[in-house]
Amino acid sequence: MKIEELLKTKDTMSPSKKLALNLIVTANHISDKVQFAIKPFGISSQQFNVLRILRGQKNKPANLSTIQDRMVSKMSNTTRLVDKLVEKGLSERIVCPSNRRKIEIRITAKGLQLLKELDPIIENVENSFSENLNEKEIELLNTKLNELRS
Fold first, then answer.
1. Entry pTM
2. How confident is the model at residue 38 (pLDDT cuts 50, 70, 90)?
3. How far apart are the first and last CA of the chain?
4. 78 burial class (0-12, 13-18, 19+ CB within 10 angstroms)?
5. Distance CA 111, CA 8 (A)
């Protein structure tokens, strides 16, 4: 469906405006689908993102700054997200013995198990978005999206 039809507008839009609106609508569409897939597991997409970042640390703890830098959505309140994950037993805080002000976060076994359950579900959701594209088209689209952010 064309963006004009989706937004129910007859106004003429410049190609750049169409692109911007298409990107926003598509990003929201993908975000909604991911959120719907993880909702039964009792976590938000931002909490899911933090868990994946922590898993990527390969059992090494991460500080809040590292997590914030790697977040997909930079608008998230990282401290609050980590608090929620700690409450759920999906991550843990580690206080540095030599500097008690330094707090690091590590994923727990429960958090790793949750991601193991979610991985195939999220992979199916992610694959569903590109099922109408071939590999070459996907690579080209990724390249062009990278260029847009440069």
1. 0.87
2. very high
3. 28
4. buried
5. 43
- The pair of structure tokens assigned to 124 is 């199916």
CA distance 48 to 122: 10
- The DSSP code for 74 is T
pLDDT, position 56:
96
What does the DSSP assignment read for 84-117? HHHHTTSEEEEE-SS-TT-EEEEE-HHHHHHHHH
Q: What pLDDT digit, counting tens, does each position of 81-125 carry?
A: 999 999 999 999 998 777 778 889 999 999 999 999 999 999 999
DSSP string, 15-65: HHHHHHHHHHHHHHHHHHHHHHHHGGGT--HHHHHHHHHHHHTTT--B-HH
What is the per-residue pLDDT across 67-82, written as a single tens digit (0 to 9) for each?
999 998 877 789 999 9
Question: Can you tell me the distance from the alpha carbon of 16 to that of 4, in angstroms, rounded to the nearest whole number?
Answer: 13
Q: What is the token pair recorded at 126?
A: 């992610």
